[in-house]
Design a protein that fits this description.
It comes from Plantibacter flavus. This is Alpha-1,3-rhamnosyl/mannosyltransferase. Keywords: Glycosyltransferase, Transferase. InterPro entries: Glyco_trans_1, Glyco_trans_4-like_N. By secondary structure, the protein is α/β, with parallel strands linked by helices. It has two domains: about 190 residues, Rossmann fold; about 150 residues, Rossmann fold. The chain is built from 13 helices and 13 strands. The strands form two sheets. Strands 3-2-1-4-5-6-7 form a seven-stranded parallel β-sheet, sandwiched between helices. The chain has a six-stranded parallel β-sheet with strand order 10-9-8-11-12-13, with helices on both faces. Helix 5 links the parallel strand 6 and strand 7. Helix 9 packs across helix 12. The protein is globular.
C-alpha cells in the first residue's frame, strides 16, 4: 500500500483558505477511500486541533507553524527527512511550500503566485523575498504541482519556470455553511465581506466607496476575518462611516452561516487573487455576489455575479446600490449562482488529486 505523507506544518488554525483546502480535500479523500495510506505531519499547534478530518495517523512533528523561522526551516529542510523517517512513498505539500530536497517524489499545491506578481500588495514586505526563495527551492524539487486556476497556472510557468506538462489544474470547491433558509434582512440591509486583511483584498476600497451610495438606501457593510487590532478601523475613521461599517473578527462557521442567511449580498473587491472560496460558498448558499472584474474571478463566478472595477470607487458604489435597489437582479444572481456552484465539488477535487498522486508515483 503506497504511503503518502502530508505536510501540515502551516496548519495552525489561523491560516484561512489553505487550511480549508487541506481539511476538505482530505476529509473527502477519506470518504472516497483509495489504495493509499496517509500520514499527516502536523505542526505542534495543528496537532492540538480537531484531527478527525484526516484519513490516517497524524504525527506531531514538534515544529511550530506560528514561529516563522522554525516553520521555514521545517518546510525546507526537515519535512522531507520526517517523511522519509515515516517511510513515505510520496510527499504532498498542500500549502504553497515544500522541501528543498526529498528522497521521494513531491507534489506541491501552489494556490497563487501573489508574492511574485503583486509583491507591493503583501502585508509583510520583509517576508516577500524569503517566501519567493522558498517557493523557488520547493519548485525545483517538486515532481508535480497542483494549482487552482488558469491564472495561477500561467503565473507558475512565468515566474518559476515550472514545466507546463507537470502542472495539474484542479479548481477548488466550496463547503456548505451551517445555515437555514435564506432570509435577507430587508429592514437593515447589509453587504457582507469576509477574508484576511492583506492589502490585495481591497477592503479599504469597499469602505471608501460606501459614502458614494445614497444615504437613503445605503447598506451597512460587515467585514469579518480580522485577527487582533483591525487595520481597517483607520479607514472607517477616515471616511466617517462608523455607523455604517461593522468590523468583525474571525467567526465560527455557525456565526458566518447566520450572516450568509441574512446578508443582502457578498462583496469581494480584491485587486488580485488565486481563487475565491467565499464567493463560491456564497453562490452555493444563494447569496448574490458582487465581485471584482478580474480574470480569476471570472473563472470562479462566470456570469453569475455583479462585476465592478476594483480600482473605481464609483463602480464599487454602483454595485452596492444595485444590491439594495434591484431585488429582481439579486434574485437572478442567486439562482445563477446556485447553478454555477454545482460545477465545483470536493469529490472532483479529491478524485483528481488522487489521480495526480498515481501519475506521479508511476
Amino acid at each position: 500500500m503506497p504511503r503518502v505523507a502530508v505536510d501540515l506544518l502551516s496548519y495552525t488554525g489561523t491560516k484561512g483558505g489553505m487550511e480549508t483546502y487541506a481539511r476538505e480535500l482530505y476529509r473527502e479523500i477519506g470518504r472516497l477511500g483509495s489504495e493509499f495510506e496517509f500520514v499527516g505531519l502536523a505542526s505542534k499547534e495543528g496537532y492540538q486541533l480537531d484531527r478527525s478530518w484526516f484519513p490516517g495517523n497524524m504525527i506531531d512533528t514538534g515544529i511550530s507553524g506560528e514561529n516563522r523561522f522554525r516553520w521555514a526551516v521545517g518546510e525546507l529542510w526537515s519535512i522531507g527527512r520526517i517523511a522519509k523517517r515515516h517511510r513515505a512513498d510520496l510527499l504532498h505539500c498542500p500549502a504553497l511550500l515544500g522541501p528543498a530536497r526529498s528522497s521521494m517524489p513531491t507534489v506541491i499545491s501552489m494556490h497563487d503566485m501573489l508574492y511574485w506578481s503583486q509583491p507591493q500588495m503583501m502585508s509583510t514586505p520583509a517576508f516577500t523575498e524569503p517566501v519567493k526563495f522558498m517557493e523557488r527551492l520547493g519548485a525545483r524539487n517538486a515532481s508535480r504541482m497542483i494549482t487552482i486556476s488558469e491564472v495561477s497556472r500561467r503565473e507558475i510557468i512565468t515566474y518559476l519556470g515550472f514545466p507546463a506538462d507537470r502542472i495539474v489544474l484542479i479548481p477548488l470547491a466550496g463547503t456548505a455553511l451551517p445555515m437555514g433558509e435564506r432570509r435577507p434582512d430587508k429592514e437593515h440591509p447589509f453587504i457582507l465581506a469576509t477574508g484576511n486583511r492583506r492589502p490585495h483584498k481591497n477592503w479599504a476600497g469597499l469602505i471608501r466607496a460606501l459614502p458614494l451610495v445614497d444615504e437613503a438606501i445605503r447598506p451597512r457593510v460587515v467585514i469579518t476575518g480580522s485577527h487582533g487590532e483591525d487595520p481597517l478601523r483607520a479607514v472607517v475613521d477616515e471616511v466617517g462611516m462608523h455607523d455604517w461599517v461593522e468590523l468583525r473578527s474571525w467567526l465560527t462557521s455557525e456565526e458566518l452561516g447566520h450572516l450568509y442567511e441574512t446578508a443582502t449580498a457578498l462583496a469581494m473587491p480584491s485587486f488580485h487573487d488565486g481563487f475565491s472560496l467565499p464567493a463560491l460558498e456564497a453562490m452555493m448558499a444563494g447569496l448574490p455576489v458582487l465581485i471584482s472584474d478580474i480574470p480569476v474571478y471570472r473563472e470562479v463566478a462566470g456570469d453569475a455575479a455583479e462585476y465592478f472595477d476594483p480600482h473605481s470607487l464609483e463602480s464599487i458604489a454602483t454595485a452596492m446600490t444595485t444590491a439594495v435597489s434591484d431585488p429582481a437582479r439579486m434574485a437572478e444572481l442567486a439562482d445563477q449562482g446556485r447553478e454555477r456552484a454545482k460545477q465545483f465539488s470536493w469529490e472532483r477535487v479529491a478524485t483528481r488529486t488522487l489521480e495526480t498522486f498515481r501519475t506521479t508515483l508511476a
